[in-house]
Amino acid sequence: MSSPTILSTNLKQHSTEALKCHLQEILTAQAGYSLKQRVDSTDHALTTIFQELRLRNPLLQPEDQVPVMLGTWTPIWTTIPYQDTLPGRIKNQSYQIFHDDGFYANIARYAPGHSKLWQRISNLLVALDLMVIQKFAVRNHQWDIQNIAIKQTLRCRTQMLTPQRADDWFTEVVARLSHQPETQTIDRSIDKSTTKKLQTAFQAQPKFEHLYIDNDFRLVKTRRDNKQRYSYTLVTRRLQNPSISSSH
Q1: C-alpha distances in Å from residue 103, one per residue of 5, 12, 184
Q2: What are 117-140's pLDDT values in tens digits?
Q3: In what order do the strands lie in the sheet with 103-110?
Q4: What's residue 157's pLDDT?
Q5: Which pTM does this prediction carry?
Q6: Residue 130 in 3-state DSSP?
Q7: Residue 32 counted as domain residue
Q8: Which residues, 6 or more positions from 157, have their beta carbon under 8 angstroms from its beta carbon?
Q9: Is residue 66 part of a domain?
Q10: Which CATH number characterizes residue 151's domain?
Q11: What are φ and ψ of residue 241, in 5° steps?
């Protein structure tokens, strides 16, 4: 992989597109980094880029961000701890999907194989698809995020988890949840250690802020609770909301 393009230290002289491309190059180059390495990088080189993009955010108010968010996005890089709860996440089969009914999902396919826990599953060419469902709304000019459900299912690994299959699964599960009482749910079909980690994340009241958002690029700052460090996620557009694409 080629080295990221070097920009001058005076970030203000560069265009927003140049900063976005530069940040994406840096974070893509960190594909093999551990969670600790990714977290450490936010304390040094990345901080100034994050701050500069925040100053250029074209949509400051959450109310204005909602229409742009709708659709399917691909996480490029994140320091959210639960993303590493299971080994073997397939990055090109990972999605954030926002629907106009106020539900959104983080969906990822895991095909471990390097963990003894998952060797038997791996040998059978079976993958684990994991989905975290949340509700989003804007209250008092701030994001209000609620955890709704965590679902997982085993599927044949040879059949890719495409954006459309992920969206269909999400839609199907939300339809079922609409007929259930308004309570948080979590499947318990995976091992106890992983379930406990997911439960810890699931019980929190997430904080959510866009440092930068436009039609194709989102830099998100989140925190599970007030005791946790801030996490950052870069996501890029996978499939646009039809109302967005038709306006261009």
Answers
A1: 37, 37, 13
A2: 555 555 567 888 999 999 999 999
A3: 185-186, 142-156, 126-139, 103-110, 89-98, 71-78, 231-240, 217-223, 207-213
A4: 85
A5: 0.83
A6: strand
A7: no
A8: 109, 111, 125, 126, 127
A9: yes
A10: 2.40.128
A11: -65, 130
